[in-house]
Amino acid sequence: MVLGLGIAWRAAIQTGRSVPDEPFRVVGNLYYVGATGVSSFLLTGPEGHVLIDGGYPETAPLIINSIAKLGFDIADVGILLNSHAHSDHAGGLRALQEASGAELWVSEADVEVMSSGRHSRDRALGPIRFVGLLGLGRFPAPRIDRRFEDGEIVRLGPLELTAHVTAGHTRGCTSWAFPVVHEDRELLAVNVCSLRLFPFVSLVEPEAYPGIRSDFERSFSTLRELPADIFLASHTDWFGMRRKLCERGDTPGAVDPFIDRDGYLAFIDEAENRFREALEEQQQRK
Ligand SMILES: [Zn+2]
After folding, report:
1. pLDDT (tens digit, 9 = 90+) per residue, 262-276?
2. Other C-beta atoms within 10 Å of 126: how many?
3. How close is the Cα of 90 to the center of ligand 1, in Å?
4. How far does residue 196's CA lie from ligand 1's centre (Å)?
5. Considering only Cβ atoms within 10 Å of each terminal Cβ, which end of the chain, N or C, has fewer?
6. Is 147 contained in some domain?
7. Is residue 10 part of a domain?
8. Contact, 59 vs 18, CB < 8 A?
9. Is the pLDDT of residue 239 over 60?
10. At 178, which CATH number?
11. Which residues, other chains included, contact 28 with Cβ-Cβ below 8 Å and sequence gap of 6+?
12. How many domains does the chain have?
């Protein structure tokens, strides 16, 4: 029964999310190298590349293959970054670390979950984290080379990525912001970590983790204040990747669909509305 439930749960969350996808250039030196549902981005540079997110454990070989398809070498990845320590974004990090020899930077507040490879350590999951005790959501814990806090800048040659800790979904959930050049213009790309609140997670006393409510509030305003031009996210459907890729080139001279500040702001608004509804409902129930 438990095994059947586990298999069904795994299949449900993985459907369409670990299927190989064609890698492509988003803009400038920014490439998509992830799977159909879980994102992975490669930012290339003359002194080494930066790779953001490792997908599920089984996504890692797809990412390595995608990097090769684009003509780059996994061994030239110097830094590995992560949005948050959940198995669908951190699962492949250890294999990618082994294949690249890259240094892995982890958000201080996600270190505990990342170093254990266990969702059961993540209080932001609420009661769902106990499903992790059945071994679900386990991932190979990677070696943590560097730890960072909010506002830190990761540099590799001319590449510069700023860590904006947008906590709530996990305590260390990190949205990465970095400049990319497109048609002689410098644009800011922002990879939104996640603003998803899991079901049954308490935002009122006792909070799922102390400060979860204020963390979410702060994350909405942090993201809104960023002058994002290119909207990216840890799941492809959140930023409409497939649709944008199809739309691209439809109208000659049109603005690239990946330049999408409106979509970025709408995503934050939607997430905040869902959060407010959940909060109101929990306050009424109290
Ligand atoms: Zn997550």
Report:
1. 999 999 999 999 999
2. 18
3. 9
4. 8
5. N
6. yes
7. no
8. yes
9. yes
10. 3.60.15.10
11. 180, 181, 182
12. 1
Alpha-carbon distance of 282 to 178, in angstroms, equals 37
Q: What length does the chain have?
A: 286
For residue 187, give its domain range. Answer: 16-285
Q: Are 79 and 106 in contact (CB under 8 A)?
A: no
Interval between CA 169 and ligand 1 midpoint (Å): 6
Residue 253: pLDDT band (50, 70, 90) is confident
Closest CA to 113 of 139, 80, 77: 139
The predicted pLDDT at position 260 comes to 97
Nearest to 87 by CA among 126, 128, 119: 119
- Beta-carbon contacts of residue 151 (< 8 Å; ≥ 6 apart): 162, 163, 164, 165
Q: Measure 230 CA to ligand 1 centroid, in angstroms.
A: 21
Q: What is the pLDDT of residue 118?
A: 85
pLDDT band at 19 (very low <50, low <70, confident <90, very high): low
Ligand 1 center to 157 CA (angstroms):
30
Per residue in 165-224, pLDDT (tens digit) is: 999 999 999 999 999 999 889 999 999 999 999 988 999 999 889 999 999 999 999 999
pLDDT at position 151: 98
CA of 150 to the centre of ligand 1 (A): 19
Q: Is the pTM of this model over 0.90?
A: yes
pLDDT for position 1: 46
CA–centroid distance, 5 to ligand 1, in Å, is: 20
Residue 25 has pLDDT above 70, yes or no: yes
CA of 158 to the centre of ligand 1 (A): 30
CA 183 / ligand 1 centre spacing (Å): 34
Surrounding residues of ion ligand 1, Cβ less than 5 A = 86
Q: How far is the CA of 84 from the centre of ligand 1 (A)?
A: 7
pLDDT (0 to 100) of residue 130: 72
CA of 215 to the centre of ligand 1 (A): 15
- The Å distance, Cα 213 to ligand 1 centre, comes to 17
Q: What is the CA(254)–ligand 1 centre distance, in A?
A: 34
**In-domain check, residue 8:** no
